[in-house]
Design goal:
single chain, seven-stranded mixed β-sheet, four-stranded antiparallel β-sheet, globular
């Protein structure tokens, strides 16, 4: 069973930065396509970023392009989401999720983490 733990969330002022981590156990992250998703209060979950299992393809929501970067450290079996220039509208619970045998995050994902809360506020 896939297990991962998200961390790195917290309270940050507008314009600040955070790095979220998605640490996996029991499987090799580089065998799966990993996505970061978020859900703000009262809103539907949305895709934020996706990293294909090959590492060759990354994808970002228009709202975060140029501000967020997804990356993977195979040695640590961890995927990161580096977030810069944070805005209040980035406030949400952020989840990582994994899927196998696909290189995109557009469809259903196989497994989900429990999420980490990011609050952007002054």
């Amino acid at each position: 069973q896939l297990e991962f733990v998200e961390s790195g969330g917290g309270l940050v002022q507008p314009g600040g930065s955070l790095r979220l981590s998605c640490a996996a156990s029991g499987f090799a992250l580089n065998s799966y396509t990993i996505g970061w998703f978020r859900q703000a209060p009262g809103k539907e979950r949305e895709g934020v970023s996706c990293l294909s299992w090959t590492g060759a393809t990354t994808d970002y929501a228009d709202s975060v392009k140029g501000r967020f970067t997804i990356s993977r450290d195979n040695a640590k079996n961890t995927v990161y989401l580096q977030m810069y220039s944070l805005k209040p509208e980035d406030t949400a619970v952020y989840y990582c999720a994994a899927v196998r045998w696909r290189t995109d995050c557009a469809g259903a994902m196989d497994s989900w983490g429990k999420g980490t809360l990011v609050t952007v506020s002054s």
